[in-house]
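I'm stuck. Protein, please.
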Amino acid sequence: MGRALIGGLLRQGTRPEQISVGESVPAARESLSRELGISATADNRAALADAAIVVVAVKPQDTQSVLEPLRDLLQRNRPTVLSVAAGIRVSALETWCGSGIPVVRAMPNRPALVGAGATGLYAPTHVDAAHRAAAQHVMEASGEVVWVPSEEALDVVTALSGSGPAYFFLLAELMADAAAQLGLEPQSARRLAVATLYGSGLLAHTSDVDLARMREQVTSKGGTTEAALRAFTSADLRGIVARALESATLRSRELASQFGNMR
């Protein structure tokens, strides 16, 4: 995700010399420097030396061990801390960074890799507009951004857009498999399913028509689409989707309890 954000910022016009990365893996450091032209170092303190905004893009279980040694530097420079570490609560981040550091949490998704991401952002009320704007600017480099009113809402964002690409991939996979079983050549079925997935998303993204209306526009009375949608309704697709998102939301909260309150 860090690489996706860097790529987006560079495409938006941020100069490579304005970006510095702390990366512990030598091969990753070399790749970042060579391919993106940015500064990458094994020394996190050097990477953060003059940073106005610090993006925490590490595994949840590594967040505390990364941030606590940097507390004195964060306290001196007072940057905005933007965390994409899944499940780590603001209260834990504020403890590890030290008092008064403005912390913003983000829940992006995998399409950020191609600049088409969807991100939920949350900040507590004491984080001011300037720090919120800084965080939003970074995340908008990878796609759409929506602010949510509570930290708990980020668990729903995780279930919807964070995990959502897998749901659409599964549907496209099942559609291609079904078409192949009906006699279409498998490679052609895959190409058509992927193109339909892409085109439908693009159409929805560029339209101001609500999703129900867009569905109706494709559904002719007595036609093939209506027959397919009737089969979905008979199988309780609405209930299946509701249960799937509920399961993902609950799991996100379980993981937050496991990793998000570390001390």
Summary: The mean pLDDT is 94. The longest helix spans residues 237-259. Strands lie at 20-22, 39-41, 53-56, 80-83, 103-107, 117-122, 143-147. The first strand starts at residue 20 and ends at 22.
